[in-house]
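Narrative progress, year one. The postdoctoral researcher (J.K.) led the effort to move from monomer predictions toward full complexes, under supervision of the PI. The following entry was the first complex the group processed end to end, covering 222 residues in total.
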Amino acid sequence: NAGVTQTPKFQVLKTGQSMTLQCAQDMNHNSMYWYRQDPGMGLRLIYYSASEGTTDKGEVPNGYNVSRLNKREFSLRLESAAPSQTSVYFCASSEAGNTEAFFGQGTRLTVV
Amino acid sequence: QQQVKQSPQSLIVQKGGIPIINCAYENTAFDYFPWYQQFPGKGPALLIAIRPDVSEKKEGRFTISFNKSAKQFSLHIMDSQPGDSATYFCGGGATNKLIFGTGTLLAVQP
């Protein structure tokens, strides 16, 4: 039972490069989320998708785009990476925003 | 704008002590208030959660106290153990999204 799977686990980018973080869940959840975790800042919501075909901005969406490819998959794209985007990124899924969310293991991204 | 404010940022207690972590929320649309526990190198995992129709919920050594009128809630850990050393996040959830506080790093000393 995989739960929420994120790839890659680690990534180093140069400033200006682009990349896509992948996330897939096998729990048939409607809602999916992308958070970033920074020291002293907690978990900040970047984007979320309440259902297949919908996406909405969270607390810190600037510099990111997302795609809800289907019910299982929710990807996060950095079009032009900046050092300020160095962080640990977590994908999560839940049946709804007000039910238990399950997290992936995280992607540690460094932008140099 | 921080929708969920959490304090303290860090906390050190002795084994057997009762650490208390506090959160305050602003969004009255929230109807789900979870606490998540995170160990180093791992993703957060649900510890305990409460709905606004009750004032307290206890699961084992973990208790949430909820004050709807003050828009505040707290986590109490009874008889804390070194294995409880982790980062704790409170959250506020509505139908569509889940927002977290800034986290509390708890260290329980043997």
